[in-house]
């Protein structure tokens, strides 16, 4: 498997849930609102024997009339039309923006119409009901008529090498993904395991739905991954998007 991080940049986010671009070289975090977090927004492309996977989809910004996510893929040598599966950990707005794109006539459609989108059914229902500020239903309402949507239930497998696990924690119906092929084991923990530093420390985040459960899951995965040589993919880590735990 080949892993390609697609960095949309660094952002600060505070109580308003607004993502404000942050220039690490010049901006001062202390000038932002009290309690602001500094995060990377970083979907991943994973190229396997039979698939091109997209793990979460970023903020959905456009540059020069084109989806930034598509631009990042092309720079990395990946044709957006080759994406066959979109795996969504959850539907918070910083993870779902690139699932769709806006047309000149105002309609919003799938940004990867050829791909199957895998989402927990209850997460979709919860997100549509809960709404702002964490969710922006208008960005993913196109899924209601999208024929390639696959609604997942609990834990299971996709094509024998992708394992999904309903964890909750960060939000009630969050899920994580294990990708196993040719002796490699890649783990994408979404926002339950968003940064390397959180894996190494007993950290309970106030912004999580169940912070204690998130901490316990991180400890469990870190120990198991260390024993089995997992490679972790961190969606919000400024410095370390991919980390291999040596056995």
Structure notes:
The structure is a single chain. With 247 residues, the chain is an alpha+beta fold. It has a single domain, classed as Metallo-beta-lactamase, Chain A. It has 5 helices and 19 strands. The chain has helices spanning 68-75, 93-96, 121-130, 196-200, 211-228; strands spanning 2-5, 9-13, 19-21, 37-41, 44-47, 52-55, 62-63, 66-67, 85-87, 100-102, 108-110, 116-120, 149-152, 156-158, 162-166, 175-181, 184-188, 231-233, 242-244. Strands 1-5-6-9-12-13 form a 6-stranded mixed beta sheet. The two termini are 19 Å apart. 40% of the residues are buried.
CATH topology name: Metallo-beta-lactamase, Chain A
Rounded radius of gyration (Å): 17 Å
Main sheet properties: 6 strands, mixed
Q: What's the shape?
A: globular
Q: What's the architecture, going by CATH?
A: 4-Layer Sandwich
Question: Regarding CATH, which class?
Answer: Alpha Beta
């Amino acid at each position: 498997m080949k892993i390609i991080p697609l960095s949309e940049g660094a952002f600060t986010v505070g109580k308003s849930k607004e993502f404000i671009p942050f220039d690490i070289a010049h901006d001062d975090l202390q000038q932002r609102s009290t309690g602001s977090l500094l995060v990377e927004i970083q979907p991943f492309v994973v190229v396997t024997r039979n698939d091109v996977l997209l793990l979460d989809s970023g903020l959905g910004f456009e540059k020069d009339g084109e989806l930034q996510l598509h631009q990042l893929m092309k720079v990395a040598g990946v044709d957006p039309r080759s994406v066959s599966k979109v795996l969504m950990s959850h539907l918070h707005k910083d993870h779902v923006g690139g699932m769709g794109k806006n047309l000149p006539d105002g309609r919003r459609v799938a940004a990867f119409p050829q791909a199957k989108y895998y989402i927990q059914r209850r997460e979709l229902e919860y997100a549509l009901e809960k709404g702002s500020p964490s969710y922006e239903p208008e960005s993913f309402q196109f899924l209601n008529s999208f024929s390639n949507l696959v609604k997942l239930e609990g834990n299971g497998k996709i094509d024998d090498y992708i394992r999904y696990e309903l964890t909750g924690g960060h939000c009630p119906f969050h899920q994580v993904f294990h990708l196993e092929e040719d002796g490699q084991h890649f783990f994408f923990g979404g926002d339950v395991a968003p940064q390397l530093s959180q894996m190494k420390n007993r950290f309970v985040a106030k912004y999580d739905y169940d912070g204690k459960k998130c901490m316990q899951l991180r400890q469990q995965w870190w120990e198991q991954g260390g024993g089995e040589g997992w490679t972790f993919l961190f969606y919000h880590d400024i410095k370390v998007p991919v980390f291999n735990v040596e056995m």
